[in-house]
Write a structure and sequence with these properties.
Blueprint: H1 2-8, H2 12-38, H3 42-51, H4 55-65, H5 71-89, H6 93-125, H7 131-191
Helix pairs in contact: 2-3, 2-7, 3-4, 4-5, 4-7, 5-7, 6-7
Amino acid sequence: MLELMVKGGWIMWPILACSLTAAILFIDFLSGIYTIVNRGNTAEAVTICDQTPGPVAHIVRTGLLHSDEKPEELKQTITKAGLGEIPRLEKNLGGLLTIAQIAPLLGLLGTVIGLIRIFMQMQQNAPLAEIGDLSGGIWQALITTAVGLCVSIPSFAGYNFLLSRVERITLNMEYAAEEVYHFLVYERTEHGDEGYETL
């Protein structure tokens, strides 16, 4: 791990710092919610979830609002809430991947058309074809390939970055769903629903 950090250069340290900060904020959010619920103020916990953007807060809110359900029903409700968030996270990934795949193919098409122009010029002006007659096709072949790659490379990089973010958020959602479920079921078992307000 340390070797990768060194090879990645100084930029790896801010990335690591952001990752650790996100993890700490995530754990603090859940701890804060649990503390408030333990005080018997479920309504306040739901309000905090409403004010916190993101799918994890939505899952926690769903669990709190359905805390009076039986454990099996509660688990299904939380799971459905998580599954409902995934399509929203993946909404634009398909389009980005399509652009990343199509752009180099369009560049290749431009290259082929440029080569066709070159051979047409060679045939029309044979045997005295000059470089000036061929340069238009050569330029087209090179430029379309370069532009296609220039569009494809950042699109594909962006797709992979967003995909990794979606996977990380999905893992956080799964963790939050399990934690909220076990917390609510444990609280209900221990306190017999005494600490929960009716919402």
